[in-house]
Amino acid sequence: MRALWGALAFAASVFLGLTSARAGGQPLDGRSIVAGAECAACHAVPDVAAPIRTASCTGCHQWVKTVSANPAQRAKAMQIFPKWARYEHNVKSYFAVPDLEVAFARLDPAWMRAYLADPYDIRPTMDEGMVRLGLNAAQIDAVVSWASTRAYKPAPSPAPSAANVPKGEALFAERGCVACHTFGKRHLGPGIPAAPDLRWARDRMTDDMLAAWIQDPTAISPKTTMPKLGLSTAEALALRDYLVLANPDTPGASASGAPAGATATAAAVAAPRWDDVEARVFGKICIHCHMDPAQNEGRAGPGNAGGFGWPATGIELQTYEGVVAHKDQILAAIARRNVEDPRDHLAPGEVPAKVKRPELPGMPLGQPALPEADQALVRAWFAAGAPR
Ligand code: HEC
Ligand code: HEC
Ligand code: HEC
Ligand code: HEC
Q1: Atom nearest to 37 CA in ligand 1
Q2: From the CB of residue 295, how many other CB atoms can be counted at a distance below 10 Å?
Q3: Which ligand 3 atom sits nearest the alpha carbon of residue 98?
Q4: Which one of the ligands is nearest to 64 CA?
């Protein structure tokens, strides 16, 4: 039933897209597609208003953090929300999502087109990832054409030279780049969540843009969180040449140990009940995209009412009844996430596997796969007949 519903909605959107592209020769409008696909629920987007807090993943998560840090507000929140202590303990994602104004200013349009069709992990110490979108190629083209009208025009620079690489490698450590960035296996993080793994920089930006960015990122976009480091033009070029020409798979002079990955504790729960699966999976994670509109002033979330370019599924995972009604789809969707994980979520130095874009994305969309212990909990609960 849902597959049919989805297929119909998809066919309708393609049809409408083609019709509007032809009627009067009007091209698809990238800004409207971005506004309709709820990119602003996670990103700051130029020319698109931020949604209200209750519709904003980043806005509400930041609000939980801000309220928790203020003793008076926190005391009040504890009275209004019985589960507040659990909330503040659990909320850890969407604090450093990149600002799209900064991304549009520097990223190469061809790279963006490929990434939006098939995203992968760029920032090794950020748990959450870019969601897989339900947009077709024509819609992605329109988004990228609109985005590239905001590109910065860098001054021309000399072509990269291998003679510069040793100097660039020394500067990379001396000038503190290592404090924030991973660079393939040459320098393994930890770094900061907002800073990209520089292994991808040569694909994401032109040589001219890279030289200009390293010398003064704030000139390219004042909203960037990378500081201007006061480098000379010659130093910026040496660093650019190191990033463009050095093999990211060879451990370099500045290589250090990767942070120990968190190992999942496989604590088996003997007889799980609704409260257990609600607290660890459905109420903690899935609810944020699959809401019950009756409990949320009509909002159903992108996983239920459609969003990020996907049609509506009608899948509500806030209530016991909603979860039980979708048992088979839930088990299939969380297992599919295991397959996507090696591409979307990598340890520093790891390279994404080349996985073909699956027909349906795994859940939770854009987040790492559920730990094996939590998947086992959900399976055990369904197998026991979903006890309350
Ligand atoms: C649920 C949250 C979420 C939504 C919705 C979302 N994104 Fe993202 N996006 C992210 C995260 C997180 C990253 C950073 C991923 C990384 O670095 O590995 C990202 C990265 C990106 C990047 C690369 C930027 C950079 O600096 O690396 C682009 C471009 C982008 N998103 C565009 C979009 C567009 C266009 C939409 C809407 C059609 C959208 N995103 C919707 C979470 C989201
Ligand atoms: C109205 C506030 C609010 C909004 C809006 C919101 N969240 Fe959350 N989010 C929370 C709270 C509170 C928790 C902790 C829930 C718990 O522990 O029971 C949470 C937890 C999560 C978690 C698990 C913990 C973590 O941080 O990784 C994920 C994943 C998540 N939310 C994703 C999203 C996504 C995606 C959106 C946007 C589509 C979103 N949330 C919108 C308040 C919100
Ligand atoms: C204080 C932390 C910090 C330091 C130090 C720092 N960066 Fe960055 N860098 C960032 C952040 C954060 C971004 C992402 C910018 C954004 O999206 O606003 C970034 C982005 C970049 C990019 C763009 C990469 C891409 O794929 O988009 C390059 C190239 C870069 N930095 C190089 C350097 C070099 C070279 C140095 C040393 C001279 C350096 N950075 C020092 C935080 C830092
Ligand atoms: C970041 C938002 C987000 C989160 C978090 C999320 N979903 Fe989804 N979900 C979506 C979107 C968007 C769709 C529609 C895409 C589609 O049709 O496959 C969807 C579709 C689904 C589907 C139907 C399509 C399929 O793949 O079979 C199931 C089942 C599902 N989600 C289960 C879950 C479960 C279980 C969780 C928690 C572990 C979860 N979702 C968390 C956004 C989300």
Answers
A1: 38
A2: 12
A3: 17
A4: 2
Residues 126 and 193: beta-carbon distance below 8 Å = yes
* Burial zone of 12 (CB within 10 Å; 0-12 exposed, 13-18 middle, 19+ buried): exposed
258 C-alpha to ligand 1 centroid (Å) = 25
Torsion sign over Cα 274, 275, 276, 279: positive
What's the pLDDT score for residue 270? Answer: 66
Burial of 162 (0-12, 13-18, 19+ CB in 10 A): exposed
- How many residues would you count in the chain? 388
Coil, helix or strand at residue 183: strand
| pTM confidence score | 0.89
Domains (ranges, CATH) in the chain? 12-148 (no CATH), 162-245 (1.10.760.10), 274-383 (no CATH)
pLDDT computed for residue 254 by the predictor: 56
Q: Which residues pair with 183 in a beta bridge?
A: 187
Token pair of 271, please?
């007889």
**Residues contacting 246, CB < 8 A, separation 6+:** 165, 168, 169, 183, 186, 252
182: Cβ below 6 Å to ligand 3?
Answer: no
Q: How far is CA 123 from CA 95, 212, 213, 242, 320, in A?
A: 13, 21, 18, 20, 36
Judge whether 146 and 204 are in contact, CB under 8 Å: no
Point out which residues pair with 310 in neighbouring strands: 307
Which residues lie across from 307 on neighbouring strands? 310
Q: If the chain, 388 residues long, is cut into consecutive pieces of 10 residues, what is the mean pLDDT of each piece?
A: 30 35 63 95 96 95 97 97 95 97 98 95 92 94 97 98 97 95 90 95 98 98 96 98 94 51 41 93 97 95 95 97 97 93 84 79 93 94 95
The residue whose two tokens read 């924030």 is 180
